[in-house]
Amino acid sequence: VGSEMCIRDRILSGDKYESFMQSTSGEYGGIGVVIGADRKNVTRIISVFPGSSAEKNGLQSGDIIKRVNDEDVSALSLSEVSDRVRGEAGTRVSLLVERENEEKLFWVERSNVSMPTVQSRLIDKNIGYIHIFSFAKHTDEEFEKQLASVKAQGADRLIIDLRMNPGGLVDTVISIMNQISVSYTHLRAHETVLDL
Description:
The structure is a single chain. 25% of the residues lie in helices and 35% in strands. It is built from five helices and 13 strands. β9 and β10 (127-132) form a beta hairpin. The longest helix has 14 residues, at 139-152. The radius of gyration is 18 Å and the shape is elongated. The model is unreliable at 1-10 and 183-196 (pLDDT under 50).
């Protein structure tokens, strides 16, 4: 399997291997959202990519996905829900979501999505916040740009958020770690805080 994969003592076959390779390439046919599941296995939209089909059709962060193409997804795993939302570019998918205790139906056309795997913002005046959603082949380049951006805005401390990150390519993780000059590190609830 090689050092490229952050998977210990497992062999992936068939659809699982294809899904892993798709997730680490950062490119797929989909609607342009990041989804996550809570402890009760409720699938929510975590973020909507700017300019995506999902954004154009009105889907929002926080929407709870109830049905995909009229199939109840409440008992499905996160990867099973993802598999049903993704598909060939140009095809349509229906999503029934719950928003503020009201159900809404959306028809969204799938397109080729290049998934941004890193987002950042400045918290307070000197703390940069960087959320890494996965370690895909281009994540280290995105991280470098986001790190430069928060530093340019005055960040001298950094929070790196890895929540809901399923892993990915070891080489990408190493590249990101090499970009960070660490003088002080402590952990706080799934976040690493670094002085820059």
